[in-house]
Amino acid sequence: MKILLLICLSLSQSYANKIIGGQNADEGQFPSMALQTNLGSFFCGGTIISEYDVLSAAHCDRISLTGHQVVAGTTKRLSGGVVKAVVGKVVHSAYDSSTFSSDIMILRVEHAFRFNDDRFPLTAAPFAIDRPAEGTPITVAGWGDTDISSGQTIPTDLQYVVVSVIADDTCNSAAAYNGSVLDGMICMGDMAGGIDSCQGDSGGPAYITGTDVVAGITSWGYGCALENKPGVYTDVAYFSDWIALYMIG
Ligand code: 4AZ
C-alpha cells in the first residue's frame, strides 16, 4: 500500500482534491466512530460494534499491544472523548498484505464503553448482514488525509463524505482495478473521482447513509479520489459470520 500511495502521490500532484471532498462532522453525528493511537499518535480509524469490540482493518494491526489505545466519543482527533487501552485483537487468519484480502480485525478494549454515559455520544454500530446494492449511498468518515496534493494533511475535526456503492464488474474493469477487487471487497466512491477516503481513514467505517449500520471498512485504493480509482472497502456483510464469531459482544 505504501508503494501504491507513493505512485499516487506523484500522479496526483495537480489534482485538487479535498476526505477528500468532505466536511466536518458534528459532535454526536457518528457515535460509533473511533480512532486508534499508538504511543499517543493517531494512525487508523475503527468502529465500535459492542461494549468491548472495535472493528477495524487487519492492515492497521501494529503487532504489539503496548501503547495501543482507542479513542471514541469525540470528533476532535486530539481532545475529548474516552480513551481505552487495547488488550486483545483478532486479525483475520486469511489476511494477505499483498492483495489486502480479508482486511479485517477486531480489537478488544480493557474496559467497556458506556453507551448510556451522557458526557460522550457513544453507541455500537450494527454491522451489515446484506451487501448493499450498487448505487446505495454510503457515508465514509475519518481523520485521514484531506489534501493529497500537498503531502499529508491530517485534519483535527472528523470528516465525512457521501459516496456510493460501485458494481464489482465496473470496479474490476481494465480502466479501473483490472481484477484486483476480490471476494470480500466492495468498491465505494465515484468513478469520476473527487470524493473518497484516503490514507489515515483506513480501518474506519463506511456507513449506510442515514443509518448507524457499518457496511464497509476502509481498506485500500490507488491514490485518493482519482478518476476510475474509487476506494476499496472490506465488505462487512461478507464477514458478518466471522465478526459474530469473534466479537465478545
Ligand atoms: C491508505 O493508504 C488508503 N482511497 C486508504 C484508503 C484509500 C487509499 C489509500 C482509498 O490507507
What does this entry look like structurally?
By secondary structure, the protein is mainly β. It has three helices and 13 strands. The protein has helices at residues 2-11, 168-171, 240-246, and strands at 23-24, 33-38, 41-48, 53-56, 68-72, 82-91, 105-109, 137-142, 159-166, 185-189, 205-208, 214-220, 231-235. A six-stranded antiparallel barrel has the order 8-9-10-13-12-11. The chain has a six-stranded antiparallel beta barrel with strand order 2-3-4-7-6-5. A hairpin with a 2-residue loop joins β2 (33-38) and β3. The longest helix has 10 residues, at 2-11. The model is unreliable at 1-18 (pLDDT under 50). 4-(aminomethyl)benzoic acid is lined by residues 1, 5, 196-199, 201-202, 218, 220-221, 224, 231. Residues 1, 5, 196-199, 201-202, 218, 220-221, 224, 231 line the site of 4-(aminomethyl)benzoic acid (4AZ).
**How is the quaternary structure best described?**
single chain
The distinct ligands, each listed once, are: 4-(aminomethyl)benzoic acid
Q: What is the 3D form?
A: globular
Q: Unreliable segments (pLDDT under 50, ≥5 consecutive)?
A: 1-18
Spatial order of strands in the largest sheet? 8-9-10-13-12-11
Termini separation comes to 32 Å
What is the average per-residue confidence, as pLDDT, rounded to a whole number?
92
Q: In percent, how helical is the residue content?
A: under 10%
Secondary structure tally: strands: 13
Which series of helices and strands comes N to C?
A: HEEEEEEEEEHEEEEH
Reported for the largest beta sheet, the result is: 6 strands, antiparallel, barrel
What's the tally of helices?
3
- Kindly estimate the percentage of residues that lie in beta strands according to DSSP: 25-35%
Q: Structural class from helices and strands?
A: mainly beta
The value of Rg in angstroms is 16 Å
